[in-house]
Each structure stands twice: as structure tokens, then as C-alpha cells.
Design a protein that fits this description.
heterodimer, A: alpha+beta, 2 domains, 7-stranded mixed sheet, 4-stranded antiparallel sheet, B: alpha/beta, Rossmann fold
Chain lengths: 386, 231
Amino acid sequence: MNRFTLIWRNLWRKPIRTVFTMLAILVVFFLFTLLEGLRIAFSLSDVGPAAEERLLSSHKVSLIMMLPVAYESRIARLGGIEAVSHGTWFGARYQDNPEFAQYPVVAEQYLALNPEIKLDEEQRQAWLGNRMGAIVGRPVANQYGWEVGDRVPLKSSIWTRNNGSDVWEFDIEGIFDDTDAGMNAGVVLFHYDYFDEARAFGKGTVGWYVSKGDGSVPLNELMDSIDAEFANSPAETKTNTEAAFAQEYAQQFGNIGLIVTLILAAVVFMILLVTGHTMAQSVRERIHEMGVLKTLGFTSGSIFGLTVVEGLLLVLPVGILAMALGWGALALVAGFMGAMFPAGLHIGTYSIVLGLALMLAISLGSVLPPVIRALRLDIVALLRTS
Amino acid sequence: MARQLIRLAGVGKNYRKGRELVRVLEGITLGIEEGDFVGLMGPSGSGKTTLLNLLGGLDKPTRGDVEVDGKTISKLSSGALAKWRASNIGFIFQFYNLLPVLTAARNVGLPLLLTSLSASQRRKHVNTALQLVGLADRAKHYPRELSGGQEQRVAIARAIVSDPPILLCDEPTGDLDRATADEIMSLLQRLNRDYGKTIVMVTHDPRAASFAHRVLHLDKGELSKKPVDLH
């Protein structure tokens, strides 16, 4: 026998209680992982560093109001601007699925401004060479089972074609990854020229402009100079960083995210209390035995160590397994519904660290108070405990 | 003449019960020689277990010194006292105090976790101790699968497995029937006679006390000078 045997046997002292406690921990951290995935999906907080540097100019009144395409050259002429491109909300759905993000863009400009979009060179050339071509984020391709070479019909709720149809066909020429897992992760990008020529109304307009400074002018000044350029015009602009825009956009879902967060946080908190209570009870039951161990020559420090390791053993392996299962579940859901989450459905380093910190807090928080209280008693008092 | 192993000089012990100061032991001066077998009798509340706890370093005296093998244990820190207990004292309790989650062999092996012995050496020591108490065939049994007498023999094996010179027994037969109590007392007698263990035993049972070389009587926290009548 070694000390681990003692810890292990104590852990399984009441197997049913241990199994139920482990199940509770499994549920807690499985839910926690889903919650984190949803929180990130709704908050779009993880848009990546590139989005902090890009500026997004939309109509001052509302994002749904269009801007003239001529603004592009005026923005490009402003001092301190390195590159500019634009996008427009297409608002289409595939078959009976929910609406997701598609943008008509000027391909080369857009790719240059969004280096986090990783697209195979051969696919890029194929896209540039096909007016009806589109590239799609991997979550979307996975969800709908699209492959390069497929022709897919998308039904727009906004844009009708010159022939009166609202169904637009695109050739999938490439599938890209977004290394920042940001706003482009779950979108379809296609050619603005094709879109502008074929749409029945709104020709010569775009939804928003994306620009990037060359570093010679501070971002704040650049934002002000863009908005000043179009002040007092019929279509004034409001410019912000892409990251700030993403946050603003996400506020549409903010309430859903907040409600999901609050409900799941309450569930997690209640289960944590139950788990903590069970573990604390398990320690309290052994106070007399702590007295026996001290009588045999075990120091308070070694008993403390044995109990803490037992608490960690109860929580950490199951908690980590639960987070891995949660991760798998998120990936599975993303496979079916990835297009609904433009920022992807995943957890990041912050969530993993937070999860591990919670595991430590549960195991130490439930074990430490009773064990410290017990070890403060002298041996005679411990032995008197029934 | 055997050397004096345990020496108590003017030992007293007080407890505070609320605002009241309770004097449990007063002016205990006592010498116990190596290889002695001492019975400690007295009415409930006379301080027998408290005296045993002081001898074993489980508690510290309010006054006076407890010296064992030349070392004043009443002045040791709690950490040093724990180490000292592990190598010098074997405890045997009335209710055995075995850990229910461990088999007999693992209970016996507990004190050896505090030594530097290898796993195979520890196994060897455990087997020897279990053989000595006649329970080698019950090594893999859990305490709940053993009778009271067998549990007490496992507790004795645990007390002797690290070969401490002193065994302190608190009512070792208090929870056993007469026949089983006699077996346990014979085992303690053998450990004293054949293996030279110094034994101090608290008991209410005159029959158990008759196995001791001498019996001390405690009354109201003081050692009685009168000889003890076991009949």
C-alpha cells in the first residue's frame, strides 16, 4: 500500500455518493462548456486582432440603409488610408434553413483586407475567374455538405433579381478557414459585380465600407476624417473599428445571450452548491479517522495533503472529461448549425482556464474549510468525535 | 536492574470547561522501567485516559514533564511529536479504530507509510505482524468482515508493525467477551514477555489487570499509594 491507495480508497468510501457527485460535476462542466460556447457565439467578443485595426463605416442612421459605391474612391483618397473595400448584407437562406451571413464583395480587395481568411491559391484563382463563383467558410460548408464545384441556390429575403426571382445561384469555388474564428468564419463571399448587375434595385450602393489605415494617422482621427468627409450629405457615415461594430451587432442577440447565461449560471451554481456540500460532508465524516491517523504519527500537513489530493481527484479528471465532451458537442452542433454562428461555436483559452479555475475552486472550496477546521482540533478532541 | 524508560515528574493537567477550570491530573510522579507491564485502573473520570494520552504524546501536560527514553516529549513541537509517536508508540484502542475502507493488511501497513521502507519491505513487515497476531489468513478482509476480537488483533498488529518499544492500550478488552478478552491479554502478555514491549494499559477489568506486572490506581487525578486489590 502507498499513500495513493489511501486516497483512492477514501475517494470510493461511499461509491454511490462518489458516482453521483462525479455525475453532478460532469453535468456542471458539460453545461459550462456549452454556456461558454454560446456566450462567445453571441458576444462575438473573439473577433481576433485584425478586427481591432480595421475600420467599418456604415450609414449613420442604420446599417440597413445603403451607401453610394462612389464613397470607396473618396475614402481611399483620404490621408492615412492604406486600403478600402466594401460589403453588403445579402440576407439569404439555403433551402428551409435559417438565414445566415453572405456578403457580395470585391474579391481581391476583401481578401487583402482580411488576411485571416485562409484560402487555397488554386481555389482563389478559380473564384476570381468565375463571376458566379463564391467562397464559403468551413462551418457553412460542413453544415450544408457543400463541396467545391457545387452550384447552390440561395433565396434572398432582400434582393430580387432583374428577372423578378429571389433565388440566386452560386458556384462554390473555394472553402476557407478563418484563423481568427472571427466574423468571417461562417459566411459566403461572392462577387459584387455579379450582384450589382443582377439585382433589381439599389444598384450602385453598398452596405458598408471596410478600410485600413497605413499607420501614419491614429485610428480615432482616421474615423473622424471618414465621417467628416460625408458630413451633411444625404448618406452620412458612422465609423468604428470592426471589433466595436461586431460588439454592437452582437447586442441584437445580447438579451438572448444574457438569458442563456443567467439560466445556465443559476443551474451551474446550484449544482456546485450541492457538490460542495456532498464533498464537505464526506470530509466531516472522517474527522475521527483523522485523529487516528494523527495518533499513528501522520502530521496535520500530510493529512491536509491527502484530503486535498482526494478533492482534486474527485473533480479534475471528471471536469476535464466533461469539458472535452462539451467541446465535442459544440463541434457537433457547429457541424449542423455552423452557419448560424458567424463567429463559430467553440471555446477558447479563456474558457479552458476559467473551467480549470472553477474545478480548483470547487475541490478546494469544499474540502479546505472542513479539513482546516478538523486539523485545528487537538488529537484528543478528534478522537472524541464519533 | 532494567533502566527507567518513562518518567513523569509532578505532572498535572487542567482543562477549561467554559469558565470552569477542571483539574484532571495533579502531581503525578511515576517511573516505568523498560519491559514493564503496567495496569492503570480507577473510576470513570479519574484521569486514566488523560494520563495515557500524556504518555503517548497525544496531549501535553499543564505542569511538569513527561520524559521517555531520556527525551522530554512534553516540550516537543506537534510535528516533532508526530514523528516521535510514529517510531516510539503503538496505540491500541477500545474500539479498535481501524479504517473501514482499508483491508486488514492495509490498516496494519498504515504506520509504515511514514517510514522510508520500500514497498516489498513494508509488505514483509505487515505479513510478520499479522502472523504474530494469528491473522495472516485474514489479510485481505475488511474490518466489517472481522469479529471484534479479530479487529482488535489487527489493531495490535498495526501497533507493533513499526516495532515501537512502548504499547499504550486504552481498555483493549472493553468491547470483548471474556474468552476473546483473555486471548487479547495473552497476546499482549506475549508481546511483553517475548518481545520486550513496555506496556501501559488502562482498564476497568480486574481480570485484564491481573496480566500486568503491577497495577496503579488513579483516583480524582492522583495516583493512589495503596496497593490495588484485584479481587
